Queue: 2 jobs
Job 1
Amino acid sequence: MTRIVRAGPSLGLPLRAALVTLALWSGSASWAADDTLFRALGGDAGIARIVDGLIDRAYLDDRIKAKFDGVKQAALKESIRKQFCQLSGGPCVYDGETMRNSHAQLALTKADFNALVEDLQAAMDEQQVPFTVQNKLLALLAPMHRDIITK
Ligand code: HEM
């Protein structure tokens, strides 16, 4: 114990500076946004492909396509792309409506929600997103059911 206390002041300045640098560097991972999931989804381009696949499927999905009547597909894709990017830790800002407001008039059921999730899973399968990565995105989306399902 005594030896450790004594060792402190004897550390040369360069060594102490190096230790501080190391401490800052090792801590930085928790300071910076963690973009692991964003990168695992393929970054901007990967997410754009996933969202294209999701919305293309949803608009053709007999279970839910009526919900998208009159909704501009390109704008919806852009909005969800930004949302997924931000949610996964990417460098985007989602500037759309809240989930509660944007789905309030749609009278969505649990079955509608599950249908969309299946379309998303199919879109991620098509992009060969590993299951562990798929599950991480789905886990971030799952709590939104409280705001989206109103019926
Ligand atoms: C986790 C599930 C869901 C997520 C993350 C999600 C995400 C979004 C986002 C980001 C928007 C755009 C809001 C804006 O730009 O202001 C949106 C709008 C919309 N969503 Fe969802 N959504 C989900 C579930 C669903 C389901 C289950 C349906 C229908 C089956 C649906 C149908 C729509 C429609 C029709 C719009 C356009 C509303 C409008 O422009 O009036 N969504 N959604």
Job 2
Amino acid sequence: MPKEIFLQEGTLITSKTDLKGLIVYANNDFLKYADFSMKEVLNQPHNIVRHSDMPRTVFKFLWDYVKEGKEIFAYVKNRTKNNDYYWVFANVTPSIDTNNNVIGYYSVRRMPNRNAIATIEKLYNDLLKIEQQQGINKGVEALKDFCKSTGKTYNELIFSLQNSK
Ligand SMILES: Cc1cc2nc3c(=O)[nH]c(=O)nc-3n(C[C@H](O)[C@H](O)[C@H](O)COP(=O)(O)O)c2cc1C
């Protein structure tokens, strides 16, 4: 049975990718939690830690935001090399050169608020079903509707979940 690995308080899991999402840097905590060696992750697509419970909708949001030069926050369930998993509260930002061109991406992952994970697991489960039955565009619509129902933008919603009691 896959087991959950819990991030310790204060942990910062960081990675950098090129424009295609190939990993060009991972810190020690990235390697420790994902249980990979540097050699195994360098130049690999970032989906090396993708968990099958993650809706594609969330990654579509992620890529749409960062390609436009905007940062994004997301709860992500990642898999380890041995098929265990760990939840993170992630912030992904574009790296920009002096001419305002996006030249790569940077991400920092922290310990998630446990109360938020219950809400997110339900939301992701619903999104997965919608994507499977009706396609990714309906998933995107459903996530937008969910945000609207809370009166918040996507990033505001995720941030408020992280700061909720
Ligand atoms: C800087 C950066 C960090 C990312 N971090 C993760 C991550 O921790 N877990 C993950 O599953 N995908 C992450 N992604 C998204 C992956 O590139 C990919 O879109 C996702 O795993 C879904 O895989 P797919 O695009 O092959 O469907 C990250 C992307 C970028 C640019």
